[in-house]
Description:
The protein is of the alpha+beta class. Helices cover 27% and strands 20% of the residues.
Amino acid sequence: MALAAAAVALAGCQGKVQRPACPAGQTCLEYGIEIEPLTLDPQKANLLSESRVIGDLMMGLTTETPDATPSPGMATSWATSPDGLTWTFQLREAKWSDGRPVTADDFVFGFRRVLAPETASIYAYMVYILKNGQAVNEGKAGPETLGARALGPRTLELTLEHPAPYLPQLLMHQSFYPAPKHVVEKHGDAWVQPGKYVSNGAFQLVSWRLGDRIQAVKNPHFFEADKVCLDRINYYPTPDAVAAERRIERGELDINTSFQSNRFERLQKTLPGYARTHVALATSYLSFNTRDVAPLKDVRVRRALSESIDRDFITRKLLRAGQLSAYSFVPPITAGYAPGPKVVWADKSLEARQAEARALLAQAGYTPERPLKIEIKTASNTDSLLLMEAVQADWRAIGVDVSLVQNEGAIAFAAYRERDFQVGSMSWYADFNDPVTFLALMQSTTGAQNYGDYRNPAYDALLAQADQEPDAARRAQILSRAEQIMLNQEGTAPLFYQVTRALVNPRVTGWTDNALNFHRARWMCVKG
């Protein structure tokens, strides 16, 4: 899942607490999220900030426990055929927020909708796991051929293209959420507007004031509404991490989902007990636009750019919150991963790498008299800017003429999707705990999220082989071989493995740090 952020000026008096009153007898949470969501449509969402809100409003067949492991959600149980291809789910008696029953048809409708070409979902490739999913998405087969059918109002059968023992994890993702068929058919894409939005999760949408807040309240029809502590949540876009820190300090926010990395030590002193970090299933990396930028089609250029970056300076001196230098794309802590893949130059000193980088650029025809000119596009938050300024300095040290372009986070990612960039700075947070959530980004069939348009038939073939391999150890080795191929070709430039960072008022209970960085509000409460 892509993470984007950007800096904007936040209004409000510095000396006055700007916190809305909570109705008497209720429990309210003021929740800062990274940036303004572009949509609350589960079948169209892409950004981490969107997933935070949608995950409180909606629920799939499986859902997250406080520590982000999968547990029964709308499904109470499931059975799998001996070949691992057919999964049959029994659904609980559940209702949408308008009181209508949630049925197996709503899931079938949601799956068909995310794959419909006109939906243009950036996550459609994830649903290719359903039989004929890719063909439906490409308009080569009708939606009725999809491997999802309702056997009754509360029985759903899924037929897969290949065995996927990780399916319960995958089904937690928003792309597999149901869609309220009766509402979408009535309102079309406008169904996500306040007043029309119908949800099946612990909360329901009340209002959305752009640039201010999204408000949700407890859904009285949720199947465990009596166990939900919070009555109201206000979600505030907080792209300026330092301004959000001040709002936390003043008591205006109870939670903010990020803080400026190099302020971690300071925060431990000024706000003891607030700063929360945890090793993350996430990699920050650079994407090279190999489709449109001629120099970046040359592996020598990509290697020179990647190996000349001083990752240890970035993690130890610049960011300083526990990030680790990355020489592979998949974080080593990922379940089902066979550690070993790394870029071929990983064990060389920085001095040797930068000398080799200059030589590679010269071989590619770039000299001090004719330098390589390149542009980095990045989101305009402080952490990203500091990071890219460090990369810029490293590239200038090997003779590259490099410029930076800053965009508001959502605009930057829209540009990445449209390939309106040369080099892009981004992070990928795992959608589920398996190497495929990272490696699938580089498949030629992935589409918009394969930002650099990396394409390699041998890589694709190994991922396809891994899909058919039932033995977990052999599957891990196949995926390892695929990653090594991509790294040998410098398909991307991994920079560092992320840590989750949040500011959480100690009065908030139920926030559990976890590697997937999922924190559903149904588990939270506010003391006092």
